[in-house]
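Usage

Read records sequentially. Each one opens with the input sequence:
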Amino acid sequence: MSNQTIYTKLVSAGMSPAGACGMMGNMNAESAMRANNAQDGMTRMSDAEYTAAVDNGSYTNFVKDAVGYGLCQWTYHTRKQELLNFAKSKGVSIGNEDMQVEFAIKELKRDNASLWKFLCSTTDIEEAASRICKEYERPAVNNITVRASAGKQFYNQVSKTTVTKTE
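and closes with the structure output:
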């Protein structure tokens, strides 16, 4: 999936261009936009090996290993269990980018309704990046400046596309 595709999926779901780019800035800070990213230094397997082992069932500790995973670096066991269940329900790899974007949208709508509403109307990339970091990602290090800067770069790259909202 390209940055443009992720942007289109987020905006099609209802996010404003600024909200979508704030989300992408966070994804970039979390995973360098790599859906199969297993948190650096937390496993001896490569990202590809970790993903394949989860997919084929040979690695059974995915949910409770505390390794951040994917675009949003899901780490907490209940969220990782839901991500795994969602991937299985779709019949796709845990590292599938499209599924992960869809899952993040689902989580935001269900568990962060006020943040979702804000992301659908905001024109402020920096505030979007900040709120996503604090309310959705909740990382140990709130590198909001980095997240907002990446969001602004994504905005300059992808926001000129007209996207039809589907929801």
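Summary fields computed downstream for this record:
- The chain has a mean pLDDT of 94.
- The first helix runs from residue 3 to 12.
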